[in-house]
Design a protein that fits this description.
Layout: E1 2-8, H1 11-18, H2 21-28, E2 32-38, E3 51-52, E4 62-63, H3 65-74, E5 82-93, H4 96-102, E6 107-111, E7 117-118, H5 120-125, E8 129-132, H6 142-153, H7 163-167, E9 186-187, E10 190-191, H8 201-219, H9 221-230
Helix pairs in contact: 1-6, 8-9
The structure holds adenine.
Adenine binds near residues 89, 133, 136 and 138.
């Protein structure tokens, strides 16, 4: 069983997000276990403070090293195959390659930053992966930690019933996903492409691939060029 721990001052948010949908299903199937470490309860300060002003001045408060180190050290059983993830806008941009890589760890520990940042000694001594979920700023590390958790957990064998579904997701290969339709075949005069109703699986696969290629070419030229290169194709 994979252990995913969250060190955070706002565990309620993490508990809410991990107790729904696929993340909850993975827990119920005993494939993952979530562990929440409330930063305030690890503070040695008499007022349970977890942040302080930055040395050298500047705006914003900095999360102190002590509560984070204490929370981290309270996790007794940590395997060698562990990853300690610090979500931060100046980290490595998350993509499927990084998700697949992280999904192989036995223990994943998220350190959720807040305020202006965390004491650099946490990043230097504890963190193995600094990860950004995109070029925008969120108020804390909880939402990125849940985004990263979601992409990791759905890749663990047994979590999703139909792994083929995950394999055709956008970004699993180089191409974006194709269009999907379900019943009824005509809705407000809008018809499903005939080929999808034909029962001819060879033709259906051809249509799906064509749809993925066209969509990728229009929306993500960078991926489209990668696809051509990896498949030894020229335009
Ligand atoms: N914390 C704040 N913004 C973030 C982002 N874009 N990615 C990861 N962590 C963050």
């Amino acid at each position: 069983m994979k252990n995913i721990s969250f060190i955070s001052p706002f565990c309620d948010l993490l508990k809410a997000l991990t107790s729904t949908s696929i993340l909850d299903r993975a827990k119920k199937k005993e494939i993952v276990n979530y562990n929440f470490l409330d930063l305030f309860s690890f503070s040695e300060d008499i007022h349970r403070r977890i942040d302080d002003y930055p040395f050298g001045g500047g705006d914003g408060m900095i999360l102190q090293a002590q509560p984070i180190f204490s929370a981290f050290e309270s996790i007794t059983k940590i395997s060698d195959k562990r990853r300690v993830v610090f979500p931060t806008p100046d980290g490595k941009k998350l993509d499927m390659k990084l998700s697949l890589d992280l999904s192989e760890a036995e223990d994943i520990i998220f350190i959720c930053g807040h305020y202006k940042g965390v004491d650099q000694r946490v990043r230097d001594e504890l963190v193995t992966d600094e990860v950004s979920i995109g070029d925008y700023i969120l108020t804390g590390g909880e939402l990125p930690a849940c985004v990263i958790t979601d992409t990791i957990v759905r890749l663990i064998p047994g979590v999703i019933n139909n792994i083929n579904s995950a394999k055709t997701d956008s970004f699993y290969g180089d191409l974006l996903d194709h269009a999907h339709y379900t019943r009824p075949d005509v809705f407000r005069d809008l018809k499903v492409p005939d080929v999808l109703l034909s029962g001819n699986h060879k033709e259906i696969d051809k249509w799906k691939l064509k749809n993925r290629i066209e969509k990728t070419k229009i929306r993500r030229l960078d991926l489209y060029k990668k696809y051509l290169k990896n498949n030894n194709k020229v335009e």
